[in-house]
Amino acid sequence: MTAISVDSTTPTQTNRRAQLLTVIATPLLAAVVWILAVPIAGVELVAQPGGQQSSAITISIASVLAAGLTAALLGWAAWAVLDRLSGHARSIWRVLAVVVLAGSMVSPVTAADGAASVVLIALHLVVGATLIVGLPVRPRRVA
């Protein structure tokens, strides 16, 4: 006698789970970068918006987690709208996400220097890459 396995999850449920995992993983991966850079490598992660020394902001792990989660939730919302309204959601998503990621690079390049700038760029790249790859999940094909 052979057993038949029945998967009761629909492709939509599977996609949502994968997207939720991406939303959760995004800030956590950014936190890993922060941990490697700040406490382990000893980088002083300070940004100076507008180049003003008096308005220097120390980037804490809490701000990295909050920014990563905010970006992930906004990305998820944007993907959901694109997926619902367009038959070319994946292509539009990639272009939109890369444009937003490129635009986000202005801040770390202008607001920090040296190692802090490199770490901020790495944080932006990790968050962006995770969302670009992780949010547009393809439904699994059923054999």
Supply database-style keywords.
about 140 residues; two-stranded antiparallel sheet
Describe the structure.
This protein has 5 helices and 2 strands. The chain is an all-alpha fold and 143 residues long. The chain has one domain (11-134). Strands 1-2 form a two-stranded antiparallel ribbon. Helix 2 runs antiparallel to helix 3 (89-104).
Structural class by sheet pairing and helices: mainly alpha
Q: Helicity range of the residues?
A: 55-70%
Overall pLDDT metric = 88
Report the count of strand segments: 2
Number of domains: 1
Determine the oligomeric state from the structure.
single chain
SSE layout:
Blueprint lengths: L10 H30 L5 E2 L9 E2 L2 H25 L3 H16 L1 H6 L3 H20 L9
Antiparallel strand pairs: 1-2
Helix pairs in contact: 1-2, 1-5, 2-3, 2-5, 3-5
Concise account of the structure shown:
By secondary structure, the chain is mainly alpha-helical. 68% of the residues lie in helices and 3% in strands.
